[in-house]
Fold this sequence. Notes:
It contains two helices and 16 strands. 19% of the residues lie in helices and 26% in strands. By secondary structure, the protein is of the alpha/beta class.
Amino acid sequence: MANNHRTIGNVLRGVWIRICASCARHLFPAQLRMPFYRWMGMKIGKGTKIAASVDIDGSAPELITIGNNVWVTRGVMLLCHQRDLSQYEVGKPVMDCPLKYAPITIKDGAHIGIGSIIMPGVTIGEGAVIGAGAVVTKDVPPYSIAVGTPAKVIKTFAN
Ligand SMILES: CC(C)(COP(=O)(O)OP(=O)(O)OC[C@H]1O[C@@H](n2cnc3c(N)ncnc32)[C@H](O)[C@@H]1OP(=O)(O)O)[C@@H](O)C(=O)NCCC(=O)NCCS
């Protein structure tokens, strides 16, 4: 889980992550972006490409693992945290609910469609294809296509 206590070390780490994220978002060609993502703490395999304008969760990039030969297309958001609403009650500010963190794993050869959102805790299987604009809230099996909000599998490729 990400450690977000306000120590000087964490503030400097946050600044470093945001500098890297900003460079990575805009650099061209795609290969130049990859070191910045790794310096943020993401684990990324070989041959993987991340398009411009991809949004990485700056609060916990170390929770993101991407395999080999993955294609993360433009405008995708990889989100590793959200509010824990299990104790939320009427009359209580939602901001008082603690944050909870969960990893994202994208396996080899997956294709993440334009503008999609991958939610905390999701694993995208090997060779899976995520449709444009999907909101992926659950794991996606290998070699399948998932589309929509929330994303549902519409096709699975046989061996
Ligand atoms: C998901 C996707 C891969 C499906 O491609 P496909 O296998 O050729 O599927 P089809 O176009 O035949 O569509 C199959 C069904 O899914 C629906 N569908 C396709 N893409 C969809 C999407 N992004 N969201 C919701 N539904 C979608 C179609 O309307 C169709 O529905 P129907 O069976 O009720 O008619 C493709 O539509 C897509 O979104 N690709 C991502 C494109 C992208 O991100 N490009 C970035 C640059 S590479």
